[in-house]
């Protein structure tokens, strides 16, 4: 499953002359047509979800709850509609840039709670990395603006139920959330 393979890889965002690098530490898979938690369940197609029906490697960024951007990676060939939500990342470089975007102050000024919570959720990481709707539809395989590259591979992976999908009937029990065990940036 692609979701597991994304763990440990580096997510890179280039914005405003900054290059931010973070290790992917938590993801959730959404398996399209038959997954009641997926935006493409039952073949649903909207302007917002159209990118999910595109090629593997595209960024699916959407705005939710009237205030947050969330980042997904399309994972299947065209017309399938599957993606993986990036739930949490661990900052690797440019800590001050992550911190300024997320909290408006330098990393050294953050307390321990803020440091732990800088990117430990899907909305937190997009804010800290400057990822917004302008990234929607970008090809994350070509190394421009937003992309994923090889990273680390020595860690233990844990799976669990996905978070925040109480509406999804039996799909709430699917073990499609994967994370690096004991990583302090994993959410909840």
Automatic annotation (TrEMBL):
It comes from Peptoniphilus indolicus ATCC 29427. InterPro entries: Formyl_transferase-like_C_sf (IPR011034), MPG (IPR003180), MPG_sf (IPR036995). This is Putative 3-methyladenine DNA glycosylase. Keywords: DNA damage, DNA repair, Glycosidase, Hydrolase. GO terms for biological process: base-excision repair. Belongs to the DNA glycosylase MPG family. SUPFAM superfamilies: FMT C-terminal domain-like. GO terms for molecular function: alkylbase DNA N-glycosylase activity; DNA binding. Its EC number is 3.2.2.-. Pfam families: Pur_DNA_glyco.
């Amino acid at each position: 499953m692609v979701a597991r393979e994304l763990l440990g890889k580096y997510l890179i965002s280039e914005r405003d002359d900054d290059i931010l690098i973070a290790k992917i530490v938590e993801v959730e898979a959404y398996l399209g047509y038959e997954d009641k938690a997926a935006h493409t369940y039952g073949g649903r197609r909207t302007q917002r979800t159209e990118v999910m029906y595109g090629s593997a490697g595209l960024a699916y960024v959407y705005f939710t709850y009237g205030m947050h951007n969330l980042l997904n990676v399309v994972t299947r060939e065209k017309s399938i509609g599957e993606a993986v939500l990036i739930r949490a990342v661990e900052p690797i470089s440019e800590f001050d840039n992550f911190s300024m975007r997320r909290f408006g102050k330098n990393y050294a000024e953050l307390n321990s709670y803020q440091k732990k919570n800088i990117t430990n959720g899907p909305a937190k990481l997009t804010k800290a990395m400057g990822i917004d709707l302008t990234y929607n539809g970008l090809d994350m395989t070509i190394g421009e603006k937003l992309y994923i590259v090889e990273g680390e591979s020595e860690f233990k992976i844990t799976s669990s139920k996905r978070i925040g999908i109480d509406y999804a009937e039996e799909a709430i029990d699917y073990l499609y959330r994967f994370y690096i065990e004991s990583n302090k940036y994993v959410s909840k």
